[in-house]
Amino acid sequence: MQANKRQTRMHFSSVTWLLAVFISSAIVLFTLLYWVTHSYLLHEVDERLLGEVAEFHSIGRAEAIADIAALSRRDVASSRPYGVFDADGTWLAGNIHTLPVARHRKPFYYTQVMQDGHRAIDAHFRGIIVPTQSGLRIVVGHSIDEIIDFDRTLVKMLCVGLMLTIILAVGCGAALNAMSNRRIRAISVTGREIMAGQLNRRLPTRGTHHDLDRLAEIVNTMLDEIERLVAEVRGVCAGIAHDLRTPMTHLRAGLERARRRSASVDDYQTAVEAAIVQSDIVLNRFTALLRIAEIEADGRRASFGEVSLSTVLRDVVDLYEPVADDRGLSVTVLGHEPVQVTGDVDLLFGAVENLLDNALKFTPRGGMITLEATTEAGEPIVSVADSGPGIEAGEREAVLRPFYRSPNQQAHAPAGHGLGLSLVAAIARVHDADVEIHDNQPGCKMVLRFKGA
Amino acid sequence: MESEASILRQPGPMPRILVVEDDDPTRLEVTAALEDYGFAVESVARGHTGLLRALEGDFDAVVLDRMLPDVDGLSILSTLRNVGKQTPVLILSALSAVDERVRGLRAGGDDYLTKPFDSLELTARLNALLRRRSSPVEASALSVGDLVLDTSTHHVERAGEVIELKPREYQLLEYMMRHAGQPVTRAMLFESVWNYHFNAQTNVIDMHIGQLRRKVSLNGRLSVMIHTVRNVGYILHAGE
């Protein structure tokens, strides 16, 4: 639960970060926009003023006074004022009446009080002082009130835009956050249910390619596998319990009977012998189980070497010959070409032994068992084929699981603890081999196929 | 069937065995079992002490736990072998992996037994180790009572009558004759005759021995020489 909370907070803060970045970049963008527009407009004014400098630079004294007087009487004179001054700053003509203090030929700001009706207002200007060759100072002005008005409007617009952007961003962020929080809550609820033991539950998905959906699908696939494994482990546990209950019951009953009835030392001795036999059965089961676990746990590569499958087959058959004779079965080994694999000779012997033992158990009298070591499509294979009842296609995978017993085998199943084929499967896995079960028509053909050997 | 009493060693000097095992119940059990079967046992719980005692003491065999808390069993073994101490060593281990067995035997172990084990199996194996040491020269003709086996010609006869044996039967008989008068377990027979280390189904060995027993008794015309020792295996002796 702690982890869930932390995740939510982390998610929230990542949205906040995004918002902060988004909003500050909007502010930077709008400031830049304002500044570029403002300086462009001022630049236009300054261009014009500098143009005037060139025009008035070489003008004569009388001509300058006349021109300026004429210019300052125009309609636009209030927004385009002019003034001409003597070298000592005395006003000569024009509607600018005082010589501003500023550097020559450089545009500067100045304000002038203007009469609008009967109200005095501050008018803002950009001006330039042009010294002429005839020793006069001509001041050219340009009203920038319009630019200032435009700037204000621009700032207002940008502010409104910024506000809208922020509102939109925060809204979207909150909505996204709420949405993903809701999904995470749903996932964590399901997660808790799964942890509580409902292994069949799956994380909710919407079937989209959204990140969370893709993650949920991965987790769901994992859960499928876990559910399957847990079911298998449960099956194995039940199998062990079931398998051990019989000898344990016999053991207990025998001991109890001994306590009740035994009169002589011999009676007790017989009871102890029987108890040892029963406890051996229990121990052997455990040994078989542990062996599978050990084989699967370590790769066992250190004990690997070149193994001749043909030799192993012959040795197994040699060992089981009396058993086959006893059961009236004929066992033949086909193929005499040497087939080599890299593996553990003892484990491979164990695998073939279990396959043959199984075939001997399930084949009725007079049947035939054929073993073969050969190479098929470059892959070494070992096959053990019998003429017994065979294995139903639907059960072929299940028989490799520990403690699996075919439901229709129960009737004629000889004693066995259902671990033989799981042991073979475990040995095959260590050797990168596949266990294949084919139909021998009639009977069953078990094949160990060594990949990339 | 023979009673377990027949496993008891024949009177003579008691072989001295050093048991190095850190687990108290196992150590006590091994000690008790070996003492019951006629061995003189000294047991230590620590690897260091075990190594010192094995170096100083004059033991006929060492039973060594593979995993000790202070020194690894295999290090003790290699140290012993490096200083030229050739006392037979039987390794006890909770690890049955083939790797472990290979490692143990490579380090100089003479035999390897996986826990949990039957005390009779341990005794039988120790006896075999002691026997191997006391008669290192391979005799070419083995004889037990009126049964004679020639290892160079694989010729077997009993009371002058030739017994035809299959190769495996011959190997089984040779092994049993080399250990005549001593119980041998099914696992020992399987390991030495088939040379695989994978617990074979014991009833399969029983069937081989059954056939061999019949042939050796000349289909019942002469006395049975191969006897079953309950819970252990077999013993071959000349009989009464």
UniProtKB/TrEMBL annotation, chain A:
Cell location: Membrane
Primary subcellular site in the record, as a coarse category: membrane
Histidine kinase domain span: 239-453
Catalytic activity: ATP + protein L-histidine = ADP + protein N-phospho-L-histidine
Transmembrane spans: 12-36, 154-176
One GO cellular component term: plasma membrane
Signal peptide from the UniProt entry: none
Main enzyme class: transferase
EC number: 2.7.13.3
Location of the HAMP domain: 178-231
Record's protein name: histidine kinase
Source species of the chain: Paraburkholderia phenazinium
Taxonomic path: Bacteria, Pseudomonadati, Pseudomonadota, Betaproteobacteria, Burkholderiales
TrEMBL record, chain B:
PROSITE patterns reported in the protein's UniProt record: OMPR_PHOB, RESPONSE_REGULATORY
UniProt key word Transcription regulation: yes
DNA-binding residues: 139-238
GO MF term set: phosphorelay response regulator activity; transcription cis-regulatory region binding
GO cellular component: cytosol; protein-DNA complex
Domain spans labelled Response regulatory: 16-130
In-chain residues carrying the UniProt-annotated modification 4-aspartylphosphate: D65
Ranges where the OmpR/PhoB-type domain occurs: 139-238
Short name of any one Pfam family annotated for the protein: Trans_reg_C
GO biological process: regulation of DNA-templated transcription
The keyword Phosphoprotein is assigned to this record: yes
Record keywords, A-Z: DNA-binding, Phosphoprotein, Transcription, Transcription regulation, Two-component regulatory system
The name this protein goes by in its record: Two component transcriptional regulator, winged helix family
